[in-house]
Amino acid sequence: MTEREETLDLLVDAARRFAREVLVPAETEVQAEGEIPPRVVQGLRDLGLFGMTIPEEYGGLGLSIYEEVKVVQEICYAQPAFRSYFGTTNGVGTLGIINYGTDEQKRKYLPKLAAGEMLASFALTEPDSGSDAASLVTKATKDGNHWVINGAKRFITNAIHAGVFTVFARTGSKDSGANGISAFLVDRGTPGLTVAKPYEKMGFAGSHESDVTFDEVRVPASAMLGPDGTGFKNAMKSLDHARIHMASVAVGLSRRLLDEGTKYAVERKQFGQPIGKFQMIQAMLAESQAEYLAAKALVEQSARDRDSGRKTTMEAACSKYFATEAAGRIADRMLQVHGGNGYIKEYPIERLYRDVRLLRIYEGTSQILQIITAREMLREAGL
Ligand code: COS
Questions:
Q1: Which pLDDT value is given to residue 195?
Q2: Out of 291, 346, 363, 376, which one is annotated catalytic?
């Protein structure tokens, strides 16, 4: 075993213990309060999780994607809102800075983000631009040595906490499509930037998603991230990485769902014996276990492929599609194993079932991921 593998083992083990000993016991408190308690946030900081993907020279852990998905699976044994708190800082909110940032931009933001002193948000989605990301209408207009941003963003995770937003805005003409979009780093507190009250959602209590509006928001030319017109590619590249991460969220949660279902099948007695003795319950457990193992293998292999430098747009789309759809089926079966008890709030399965529903929607719906997969396949075949 290399030194790096040993270090990863230690981190994975620490994440596993933290999830089981601190996060899972805090779940009901988070449901009641709608907030991640400060002691938990500090624990996430102490583990270095805000800087997982940030290079070591900027204070992060500099994990490979394979290493990242191993850690995320462990953390997501607990409800996924805990991961959301540090997720945007590791994922879409920061990957653009790592991939496209100037030295100055990296030095300004990455050390604070890695330490968890500042959170990052990714502002792509708009009220009329969701799956069709290239249709966004938020506009950035050049004014001397500044850009002036006007528009509205929707469902921005961690917006109420973020110190910096990666904002995608149109710098080209109205009909410039994907190549007329640029990315900007906009600091919290910039005049004209307003964050609305978080939405009330079906699940994911403790994770906050808000609308963000830009009313004549002036940023210096140095706030542009990457060259003019490269914002869409920047966003897609970040999503290629983030979708593998998100697939590992589904794998971690699937493990938890399976453990809850199996435990219940052992404890619950009907017809004079534990329900786990019945073959119909066993079939639900076995089918779910097979899907969990398949999703885990796919996600870890996709991460290794991306680490090797290959373009993994298709693998990322397949991973998120398969792992999140499987997690949905596993949640449904494990709730069924619980019978009526699965439908009441006393058992964690009720809220995990609601949480898992979002995974098939955000960072690319299952249908968009199928389109991306088929497009890549057909392109390779010459269409
Ligand atoms: N990596 C790098 N570049 C990419 C890319 C990727 N994964 N995907 C697309 N591009 C490039 C293309 O190569 C093209 O560049 P050229 O014009 O130089 O050839 C450009 O970006 C436009 O690509 P495309 O024509 O594929 O754009 P579409 O509008 O057809 O994109 C999809 C459609 C569905 C891929 C895109 O809109 C998408 O991913 N939507 C989902 C958005 C999403 O996940 N939202 C969730 C909220 S964000 S948390």
A1: 98
A2: 363
